[in-house]
Amino acid sequence: MFKTTIVKTPGESFIHGLTTSDLGSPILEKALEQHKAYIDALKTCGVEVTVLPNHEDFPDSTFVEDTAVLTPEFAVISNPGAPSRNGEIFEMEPIIKSHYENIYYIKSPGTLDGGDILQIDNHFYLGLSERTNLEGAEQLKQILELEHYQATIVQLEKFFHLKTGISYLGNRTIVVAGEFIDHPDFNSYTKIIVPPEEEYAANCIRVNDYVIIPAGFPQTKQKMNEAGFRTIELDMSEFRKLDGGLSCLSLRF
């Protein structure tokens, strides 16, 4: 059960954030409305929400997930792979320290984005991407194993982040798309397979009794509901324009 979440309001500079998409520039007013709806959904899930103010020097800092990896026992401050985002960790560090005494750090030349880290019970999967390199993944693997977790490093082929294409819903059930549908590392789990035209819906978040999913992907929603999961749909159009998904917008612990 999650009790606490941390989110960060998009600032005016949000529209200049990094992206690999060709979906156009975000509309700030709409992004703010969507972010408020996201906060409301988290509250519906029964968690306390800490809302941090925007920071104009960091256009992508609303995607707080990339700054840390959190477990019930300890936190890991990441080292984001995009140079323009690296300073975000210094703003997040005191917030993490207010909740955790046991804190580790990913150190250069290692880079690591939280969006590349998927926890399934006591097993973590660490994605190698353009933002997370082998050195960063190996540092985190050592930390996790020191703390008695298991860790597997996964090389990404196409997805931007690991959690772009896979999410964990609990009960050993995963949502998978693209390269992860037949990936041998995930064959032991029950799979909800996302069709290619709904690939964006693979990034969703289980928060206590609900699964929050992006709106507009009816096949994936139906599969989740048929599997027994209660869903909350949210419009994510403006965050999608900056490669962002539902998991990116919060730290949950």
TrEMBL record:
<comment type="similarity">
    <text>Belongs to the DDAH family.</text>
</comment>
<feature type="active site" description="Proton donor">
    <location>
        <position position="161"/>
    </location>
</feature>
<dbReference type="GO" id="GO:0016403">
    <property type="term" value="F:dimethylargininase activity"/>
</dbReference>
<keyword id="KW-0378">Hydrolase</keyword>
<protein>
    <submittedName>
        <fullName>N(G),N(G)-dimethylarginine dimethylaminohydrolase</fullName>
    </submittedName>
</protein>
<feature type="active site" description="Nucleophile">
    <location>
        <position position="248"/>
    </location>
</feature>
<dbReference type="Pfam" id="PF19420">
    <property type="entry name" value="DDAH_eukar"/>
</dbReference>
<dbReference type="GO" id="GO:0016597">
    <property type="term" value="F:amino acid binding"/>
</dbReference>
<dbReference type="GO" id="GO:0006525">
    <property type="term" value="P:arginine metabolic process"/>
</dbReference>
<feature type="binding site">
    <location>
        <position position="18"/>
    </location>
    <ligand>
        <name>substrate</name>
    </ligand>
</feature>
<feature type="binding site">
    <location>
        <position position="60"/>
    </location>
    <ligand>
        <name>substrate</name>
    </ligand>
</feature>
<dbReference type="InterPro" id="IPR033199">
    <property type="entry name" value="DDAH-like"/>
</dbReference>
<feature type="binding site">
    <location>
        <begin position="65"/>
        <end position="66"/>
    </location>
    <ligand>
        <name>substrate</name>
    </ligand>
</feature>
<feature type="binding site">
    <location>
        <position position="85"/>
    </location>
    <ligand>
        <name>substrate</name>
    </ligand>
</feature>
<feature type="binding site">
    <location>
        <position position="242"/>
    </location>
    <ligand>
        <name>substrate</name>
    </ligand>
</feature>
<feature type="binding site">
    <location>
        <position position="131"/>
    </location>
    <ligand>
        <name>substrate</name>
    </ligand>
</feature>
<dbReference type="GO" id="GO:0045429">
    <property type="term" value="P:positive regulation of nitric oxide biosynthetic process"/>
</dbReference>
<dbReference type="GO" id="GO:0000052">
    <property type="term" value="P:citrulline metabolic process"/>
</dbReference>
